[in-house]
Design goal:
This protein is an alpha/beta fold. 55% of the residues lie in helices and 10% in strands. Strands 1, 2, 3, 4, 5 and 6 form a six-stranded mixed sheet that branches. It is elongated. The N and C termini lie far apart (90 Å). The relative contact order is 0.07.
Length: 362
Amino acid sequence: MKYHLDSHGEMLLQQYRERLPIFQRIEKLAFDHLQQSLQQQGLYVTSIEHRVKEEESLAGKVELKGAKYHALEDITDILGIRVITFYTDDVDKVAAIAKNTFDIDWKESVDKRKVHQLNSFGYNSLHYICRLPKSLVDDPDMPELNEYRFELQMRTALQHVWSTIEHDTGYKGGVKIPNEYRRQFSRLAGMLELVDDEFSRLRNELTEYRRHMQALVASGHLDEVLLDAESYRSYLKVHPFDRLNQRIASTNQAEIVHAPLLPFLTVFLQEFKFNTVGDVERFILENSDDAYQLAISQLALTDLDIISENVGLQNLCIVHILKNGGGRPGLRRFFDIINGAHHDNEPLVEMMMQQASTLPFM
């Protein structure tokens, strides 16, 4: 392809062609190390984009601004990496990780979030101009790996969406946009910025709520903890059903194998109408002896040496249903929730009724 470049521009483009393998190797090294650093810190992002600028794109840039670049090294965005985060505060976390991973050219880097003017439109990113430090790569045969700079952009998913929309609509192009459209863009940008901030605020509040619930569970103040998926998971961490399971397992010296306990939360909330974790705690205390007796009747005529981790909880639920007058219909609803609605649950109900028939409360 023929470009409309002067001799200086042609020189820059020829340098690009000669050094393209260097940029491609920097691209791989920078991406691999950044991705590894993010994973080591446990920071999950929506995506990491990376590219080496295509020749045609670079030629267009040089055609417009070639005079400002004395050498190819002055063009800092030939290699670009973009990290897109879920939350606004994660942008700063990515930046902190980048500072510990790369050498940053602070004079050329810019936090466009801080220079965002009241009358400007669209979203801005945090831009670092970086180099690979010799602590990451030191190749005597290719010293340029530590010399050429690359651009690292960090923005949220909503900021990225906005930037894409601006580009797609031509809003940031050379055509003068009427004020009515500029105003609509401004309103939408403000709404997205508010949504971005609110998502971060909500995440922080939910994190604090989880910590508070975990602290209440750990301290034993269970009546203050509303029963939901989060608090139930925290409660399971204190292994509330282990004592009953071990008591049951000792009957046949059985091994206890892992089984999911979360499905029982639906039973607690929908069938038993429990409101707090304290309700679950009382449910265990009030029914453990009968649940153990039910397990004895189940295991008495067997030589099972492996039992499921949910056997104690299942028997607690069966006893609770029967003691509270649920009978066969209550047991059927229970098994339909735990096992899924199926005709095989009916024989299971009958077997449970028979096994429980000798218990004192029956």
